[in-house]
Amino acid sequence: MPTFALIFIITIIMEFSAQQIAQILAGEVEGNAEAMVSNFSKIEEGKPGTITFLANPKYASYLYDNQASIVLINRDFVLEKAVPKTLTLVRVPNAYFALAQLLDIVNQVKPRKCGIEQPSFVHPSTTMGEGVYIGAFAYLGENVKLGENVAVYPNSYIGDNVSIGSNTTIYAGVKIYEGCVVGNDCIIHAGAVVGSDGFGFAKEGEEFKKIPQLGNVVIEDNVEIGANTAIDRAVMGSTILHKGVKLDNLVHVAHNVEIGENTGLAAQTGIAGSTKIGKNCVAGGQAGFGGHIKIGDNVSVGAQSGIISNVKDGRRIIGSPAIDVNKFLRSSIIFPKLPEIYTQLGKLEKMGDQKAE
Fold this sequence. Notes:
Largest sheet: 12 strands, mixed
CATH topology of the largest domain: UDP N-Acetylglucosamine Acyltransferase, domain 1
Structural class: alpha/beta
Number of strands: 40
CATH class of the largest domain: Mainly Beta
Strand content: 25-35%
Radius of gyration: 26 Å
Distance between the termini: 90 Å
Mean pLDDT: 92
Shape: flat
Number of helices: 5
């Protein structure tokens, strides 16, 4: 069944069958193909009339007495025993990704706001496409450009000469400083700040001289920025987030940083100025990147890691300062034993001194 047909069904009755779900997700049905669902549930809280999913093997035990009507599971998942007769399985290549697809379809049919609420300020020089929503108390400065179906929620600030692409959502309280560029299909969550001054000061004697930050921030298509994240404008040129970048809440991106396509950074990650991060990288929460370094493509950084030097493509690192994951795990076994080792070394040293005498 084509995507638009399933969207139509959901729009009209908000209910769909296992067979319809399998068709849209390229899945295979095991059980009752006519089983109907109208809501979602977590695997550990399955209820009749809902669809759930199993992607993490840690939750497999919940499958065998689940009360949900449909469950998405990976195609290669091997059942250890029979599931309830009331449970229909839909096998898909990737259950987690399939769930995301399904949730996205449902999200598309949710009612969306349109029009300009009052009070708000939209400068006469602003241009906007069809289907735009401007929430109350929003401010749009001179020469702002909005594409089609852009949503700017209440209390947001869009500075002069800002450009925002089509189908982008700016949630409440977002601040986008002058001259910044946001692409198509982006989401910027509440409280995020895009284009604030980078931390640039020249010290002379006991005083700091502020270095004007004259660049901007460029955010390419399909980027999502978490709540209360701050992305600093460049000193000169641009701070750049390439296509598909995903930033969690409370991430800080300093001036002149460049983040490669499809890289994801978890909460409280901080990136110092002029650092370049490659494509398809991931970093756990509270990771810290030093300034003026280069991180290769496909790099994986563990939570709370401190990266102070260049990292080659494909590395998996953790720790502070960060080292290879396997070396860190071997070292972590030794850490608790260090006091005993230190004591033994002291005894050996004494024995050596006594023999020398």
